[in-house]
Amino acid sequence: MSPRKYSLTIQGHATSLTLEPIFWQALNEAAAAEGKSLAALVAEIDEARTTNLSSAVRVWLFERVRSG
Predict the structure, then answer these.
(1) Rounded CA gap, 10 and 27, in Å?
(2) Is 66 exposed, middle or buried, given 0-12, 13-18 or 19+ CB atoms closer than 10 A?
(3) What is the residue-level pLDDT of the chain in tens, covering all 68 positions?
(4) Residue ranges of the Ribbon-helix-helix domain (predicted)?
(5) Taking a C-beta distance cutoff of 8 angstroms, is the pair 52, 19 a contact?
(6) What global pTM score does this model have?
(7) Which of 2, 27, 49, 53 has the highest CB neighbour count under 10 A?
(8) How far apart, in whole angstroms, are the C-alpha atoms of residue 44 and residue 13?
(9) How far apart are CA 51 and CA 2, in angstroms?
(10) What is the 3-state secondary structure of the chain?
């Protein structure tokens, strides 16, 4: 499946993520499991990232599954 661009607001800033649908689904599921809004979870990932946001989200999701 091709990556798709998604727009959201984190910490008052409009931003976008380009993710494959499976990553978008996993991100929504992770936010729900942690009892956080999608924007709050992405904001946490954004604060800790050292690469572009889309890559940081993919790595965060991978590490979440790997450590789970």
Answers:
(1) 15
(2) exposed
(3) 789 998 999 888 899 999 999 999 999 999 999 999 999 999 999 999 888 999 999 999 999 999 97
(4) 4-63
(5) no
(6) 0.89
(7) 27
(8) 14
(9) 21
(10) CCCEEEEEEECCEEEEEEECHHHHHHHHHHHHHCCCCHHHHHHHHHHHCCCCHHHHHHHHHHHHHHHC
Question: Residue 44 has which token pair?
Answer: 């946490």
- Tracing tokens 């499976």 back to the chain, one arrives at 22
Cβ-based burial of 11 (10 A; exposed 0-12, middle 13-18, buried ≥19): exposed
What tokens were used for 61? 């999701």
User: What are the tokens at 42?
Assistant: 């992405």
Q: Which residues contact 62 (CB under 8 A, 6 or more apart)?
A: none
